[in-house]
Specification:
By secondary structure, the chain is α/β, with parallel strands linked by helices. Helices cover 35% and strands 12% of the residues. It is built from 27 helices and 27 strands. The chain has a seven-stranded mixed sheet, with helices on both faces. The protein has a seven-stranded mixed sheet with strand order 18-24-23-22-21-19-20, sandwiched between helices. It has a four-stranded antiparallel sheet with strand order 13-14-17-16, covered by helices on one side. α7 links the parallel β5 and β6.
């Protein structure tokens, strides 16, 4: 057994990992935790038992609070075959389309579903949540108004309060003025504005016709944005049919558990002409090398890395796993099933209204879909208490008024209990809704068009058919359940099955984000423990778990720095220094935080050029707000000058933001706060085992030193008061339903296990670097030729020698049974490889053998054995179908699909190499008709 220090207790020797870490990590940065994190881990059974105790402290009551969150039913076939299936939750963002056709098809279903219901031609492949989608829509509206100088954005007073609060935070950083008006109540628009936000139905539950306001917005030269309830859109006329330019919302009520607020997939759809400014991911349709239809990410793949501070958004990925669940909910139920669900909600809401009126309760609402505001005789506080005693949670609006929201999971018994608690008159017997009505929705606002007409939404309505459809999609994909995904900067590591179990427990999954504090004691204790552990591991004084993605954590950290300077009267400190090697989201986040980006050069060894840093500090000393630095560096090395860098920035009055993307190379050995960091975001979906899910869910907590703590995110509807700048995510704790994964991971490993994991990750990376060094140069190394947790394999010399490109190597790896490493980032023409601590030496060697074999194949091309335009590399990947067509290649079928070292357990890609340029020229962003599949 090896201790934290790497000493073999039985033989009193130093382990290989400890010896290597001792040489790789500069001694000057070493530090220890404060001992808050448990030193020794526990067995899986004990960790789960402790989680059970925490879960038991959450009280499951019928959640009828509303405000954009609804009690839903996850079909078991989707829960088992998507939510709890590693083929889906361990997949990576589909940057390599040839091995991602299943998840790309699922996301195209999502886009088609959203576009149909919103009534607009183009939708993206999900957002982080509704409130952040609203903020992105505001920024999109501003970009779309070329030549318009207004900084005024108008918001309907009946928008969701959390969306309004988040807009205030985002608008303040960018000099945008929010103008809150009762638009649904008839208040006119101002004379000048660039955008207008409407809620449909309103937060109060009111169903109204926004067409007139949309028309007036257009007359004023503004973009019209509608935040819509996706379930209501099954019955209501679409915002697109009323002229809306942008439609946003959440797909949570399409089968995604409440989970105390997340993760949930937001959505955005836009009118024609805005698709090339759409933030987030967009799935398009292209063709492969054989002319067959193939899906791919379109237009803005890794836009943040390409355009950096000119990027339209800092969102790098989104809530893909949850978007897949929502899309499959629509596929499973189909248009008829969705109408039955939406109609039942509307009819149940109308029934509740009747019972309240029968008891003499003053009902505010008339035209409603799922939410009623009422004024019980005894006031709101007494009504809340009575409802809770009856097992139902409703929402306090003011001293006299409460709101009650009906969901898919709401039963007639729930309605009876809440109606009685509020003073309604419930008859002794009553009929059951037959599934054909529309409740109190005004007839002139009902949809007249068909929805979800594509066959995919009409063919998989039995559990058997749905199970087989999901299996067919998963079989097309490569995920961690097939083999290593050696992606640098992304940390595609093991997601322990034991850590995943609690996500499905109803004590965590069926809790409303705005539930009363006394009903969520278990959640709050888990969150508090996790915040303390993460603060201890990083050397900071406090942590906020609210940011629901790494990009949002970056933004939160930079907003904290900005507010700190403003609070001190330093309103001119708006320059953010960013190394040229940094993640692209850094620059995009800085701009969204209202800062100006100044790039710092890197030297030949890949380190930040300290001379250039001093020069930039001198040039901008009075305006220096911050530096963003990734440690270990984006180049995969432990830079020796980090302490000198942080000291120089502090001396000039700036703050130090350390990007936490590579924290998994430091845990147990060094802490950001001890390196001079003032604030960092952490990626729980990287270092702490939350699965990638094909591009999300993510959690990006922000951690800070004490002087920045007052400027961390806060939330008016949080169960625990915390001073701060306001929200950066819709829910107070971001995506809390997946926090038990990280809690269990840390509890099972303890500090000793976490430290051992760091050592194993660095040892694995160096093993790969050493094995490949004779065949591909390793671009950057530290002292003694060592790397950190990842290494950059330079393919450019091979390209110059043989003509084989980094793309060819990446696609040929598919034939060998691997997902490609990160391509051309941070250096064009290279592969960045990160094996993580999860892979054993046999898998590492299998990857190295494949890379070495590919290098040999490339040299066979250079030697003329294979033509430059017809060889296994430029033709890769090879499908099973390609074997049975006419074979016009100078290499054998066996060399194509069973190259050296490939075993019988082979992955077969469903398509050949996808034509990326064709897809951008011929953008198709919805499910193609069945005729497109005809051979």
């Amino acid at each position: 057994m090896t201790s934290v220090l790497g000493v073999d207790r039985a033989h009193n020797t130093i382990s290989p990992a400890a010896d290597l870490l001792g040489r790789a990590i500069p001694r000057a940065i070493r530090s220890e935790t404060a001992g808050i994190v448990p030193g020794i881990g526990v067995a899986e059974q004990q960790a789960l038992a402790e989680l059970r105790q925490l879960a038991a402290r959450n009280v499951i009551l019928t959640p009828m609070i509303g405000l954009g969150y609804s009690d839903t039913v996850t079909p078991s076939v989707i829960q088992r075959n998507v939510f709890e299936n590693p083929s889906w939750y361990t997949a990576y963002t589909p940057y390599q389309p040839e091995i991602s056709q299943g998840r790309l098809e699922a996301l195209l279903n999502f886009q088609t579903m959203v576009g149909d219901l919103a009534g607009l031609p183009v939708a993206n492949a999900s957002m982080l949540d509704e409130a952040t989608a609203v903020a992105e829509a505001m920024l999109l509206a501003r970009r779309a108004m070329r030549g318009k100088t207004s900084d005024v954005f108008v918001v309907d007073r009946d928008a969701l309060p959390q969306s309004i609060d988040l807009l205030r935070v985002r608008a303040d950083a960018l000099g945008i003025t929010l103008d809150i008006r009762d638009l649904a109540g008839g208040e006119p628009l101002p004379d000048d504005c660039f955008g207008v936000l409407l809620q449909y139905p309103g937060a109060s539950g009111r169903v109204w016709d926004p067409a007139g306001v949309i028309e007036r917005a257009h007359a004023a030269g503004a973009q019209a944005i509608v935040a819509a309830d996706i379930m209501a859109l099954v019955l209501l006329a679409s915002p697109g049919s009323m002229g809306a330019d942008i439609v946003v919302g959440s797909t949570q009520r399409f089968g995604v558990p409440l989970g105390f607020g997340g993760p949930h997939a937001g959505f955005m759809a836009v009118r024609a002409g805005l698709e090339r400014q759409l933030p987030g991911r967009l799935v398009g349709v292209s063709k492969d090398a054989d002319g067959n239809m193939a899906y791919r990410l379109a237009l803005q793949t890794r836009e943040q890395h390409i355009r950096r501070e000119k990027a339209t958004s800092n969102i790098c990925t989104a809530q893909v796993l949850l978007a897949v669940m929502a899309a499959m909910y629509a596929v499973y139920h189909g248009p008829d099933g969705l109408r039955r669900i939406a109609s039942r909600i509307a009819e149940n809401t109308a029934l509740l209204r009747e019972w309240l009126l029968a008891g003499g309760v003053d009902v505010v609402s008339d035209a409603v879909f799922d939410t009623i505001e009422a004024r019980p005789a005894g006031g709101s506080d007494a009504a809340l208490a009575a409802a809770r005693s009856a097992g139902v949670l409703v929402r306090r609006v003011d001293d006299a008024t409460v709101a009650v929201a009906v969901g898919e999971a709401t039963t007639v018994s729930d309605l009876a209990r809440v109606a009685t608690a509020l003073g309604g008159d419930v008859p002794a017997t009553f009929g059951i809704f037959d599934g054909a009505g529309t409740g109190r929705v005004p007839h002139d606002l009902l949809r007249s068009d068909e929805i979800l007409t594509h066959p995919v939404f009409r063919e998989h309505h039995s559990e058997t058919a749905m199970m087989r459809y999901l299996k067919s999609l998963a079989d097309k994909d490569y995920a961690l359940d097939r083999g290593m995904i050696p992606l640098g900067s992304c940390t595609m590591k093991l997601n322990p099955a034991a850590a995943m179990q609690a996500v499905s427990w109803p004590e965590f999954s069926r809790i409303h984000p705005f539930a009363p504090r006394e009903t969520v004691a278990g959640y709050l204790e888990l969150i508090a423990q996790l915040e303390e552990w993460l603060a201890d591991l990083t050397g900071y004084d406090a942590v906020s778990l609210q940011p629901n993605a790494g990009s949002q954590g970056e933004l939160a950290g930079l907003l904290a720095i900005r507010r700190y300077h403003l609070a001190r009267g330093d309103d001119g400190r708006d320059v953010c220094l960013i190394p040229s090697s940094a993640h692209g989201t850094n620059a995009a986040s800085a701009v969204l935080a209202g800062m100006r980006v100044v790039v710092v050069a890197c030297d030949e060894s890949g380190d930040i050029d300290l001379d250039d840093l001093r020069k930039k500090i001198a040039e901008h000393q009075e305006a220096l707000g911050a530096i963003m630095v990734t440690y270990p560096s984006t180049h995969g090395v432990y830079e020796e000058g980090i302490l000198e860098l942080t000291a120089a920035v502090h001396e000039a009055g700036g703050q130090v933001y350390i990007d936490g993307a590579n924290l998994n190379a430091l845990v147990g050995y060094a802490r950001f706060g001890d390196l001079g960091g003032d604030v960092s975001h952490l990626n729980l979906h990287k270092t702490f085992a939350i699965p990638h899910g094909g591009g999300g869910p993510g959690v990006g907590p922000v951690a800070a030193k004490s002087h920045l703590v007052p400027f961390l995110p806060s939330h008016d509807l949080a169960q625990v008061d915390r001073d701060g700048i306001g929200p950066v995510s819709a829910a107070p704790y971001g995506s809390p339903s997946i926090l038990p994964i990280t809690w269990a991971y840390i509890r099972m490993l303890g500090l000793e296990g976490l430290t051992a994991a760091t050592g194993a990750a660095v040892l694995n990376a160096n093993h790969i670097a050493r094995r490949l060094a004779d065949h591909f140069p390793i671009l950057y190394t530290g002292p003694e030729g060592l790397v950190a947790h990842e290494c950059i394999v330079d393919v450019r010399p091979l390209t110059r020698e043989t003509g084989i490109t980094v793309d060819d190597v990446a696609k040929r790896l598919v034939d060998y049974g691997f997902h490609a490493p990160t391509m051309s980032f941070p250096v064009a023409g290279t592969l960045m490889v990160e094996p993580t601590e999860s892979e054993d030496v046999a898998e590492l060697d299998r990857f190295c053998d494949a890379m070495i074999s590919i290098a040999r194949e490339a040299r066979r091309v250079a030697e003329g054995e294979w033509p430059a335009d017809n060889n296994p590399l430029v033709n890769a990947p090879h499908t099973a179908a390609s074997l049975v067509t006419e074979w016009a290649h100078p290499y054998t079928r066996e060399e194509a699909v069973y190259p050296a070292g490939v075993t019988a357990a082979k992955y077969w890609p469903p398509v050949r190499r996808v034509d990326q340029a064709y897809g951008d020229r011929n953008l198709v962003c919805a499910c193609p008709p069945p005729e497109a599949f005809a051979g």
